[in-house]
């Protein structure tokens, strides 16, 4: 299987503090890959390195075999990387549709000058094509009833869904999800888990996800990587990672001789 993402010996320093130390892993095309670990383990720092928000102190990041380590955050969506944020980053005064359309910006061929000439056939045809694609995403995420509502008026769970829609609108090769279920109730988590599985399977998007709900992570992930104090301590299939004594000690707070008792919760099918 071809690798969509390859992370090679990434280290990240903030002054004298090392957030990441020699972390390496690869994500295969079409994989749903999760990163877990205790608070402060370096999970979001890793996502920020991949998305370009942070520049690694050492190491290399490749997307489809292309070195993107020095690419700017603005260049990475054009290269095929979309992301959501742990803290919502929507335009609250804009409608749901307009928020999602923002995600199409880098795909638009027309510039500001030609865009103002809406009556030109090519410009109008392109905008209609983008709007059709956005409507498909709205249908996929069951947002039809909120299409024209200002994003700031929606519930927290719905706003999380709109942010996922905007990331999907980029049509990325790789989508980075930073705690997509944080702050949700059980029903909202089940819905979000189903959407993530469907966008991975039906849309064919490669997913790298950070999530604290261990039940969901173990239930829907193909492989899981565990970070602790900025270092990789485990990588493998969910059941193998769950049984790893180092993971139980670092993440679940168990002693090495205690059995793993966590049972993965079932996501909605």
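Sequence proposed for the structure above (269 residues):
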């Amino acid at each position: 299987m071809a690798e969509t993402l390859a992370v090679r010996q990434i280290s990240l320093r903030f002054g004298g503090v090392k957030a990441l130390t020699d972390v390496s892993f690869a994500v295969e095309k079409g994989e749903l890959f999760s990163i877990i670990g205790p608070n402060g383990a370096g999970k979001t720092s890793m996502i920020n390195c991949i998305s370009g928000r942070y520049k690694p102190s050492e190491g290399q990041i490749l997307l489809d075999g292309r070195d993107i380590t020095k690419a700017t955050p603005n260049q990475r969506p054009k290269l095929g990387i979309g992301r959501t944020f742990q803290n919502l980053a929507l335009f609250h005064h804009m409608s749901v549709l307009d928020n999602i359309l923002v995600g199409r910006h880098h795909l638009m061929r027309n510039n500001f000058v030609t865009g103002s000439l809406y009556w030109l056939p090519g410009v109008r045809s392109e905008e209609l094509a983008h709007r059709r694609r956005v409507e498909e995403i709205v249908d996929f995420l069951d947002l039809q009833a909120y299409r024209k509502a200002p994003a700031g008026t929606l519930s927290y769970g719905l706003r999380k869904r709109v942010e996922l829609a905007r990331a999907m609108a980029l049509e990325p090769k790789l989508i980075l999800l930073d705690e997509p279920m944080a702050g949700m109730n059980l029903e909202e988590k089940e819905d979000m888990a189903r959407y993530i599985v469907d966008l991975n399977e039906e849309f064919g998007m490669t997913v790298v996800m950070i999530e604290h709900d261990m039940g969901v992570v173990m239930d829907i992930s193909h492989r899981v990587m565990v970070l602790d104090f900025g270092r990789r301590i485990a990588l493998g299939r969910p059941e193998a990672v769950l049984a790893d004594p180092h993971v139980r000690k670092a993440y679940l707070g168990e002693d090495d001789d205690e059995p793993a008792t966590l049972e993965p919760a079932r996501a909605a099918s």
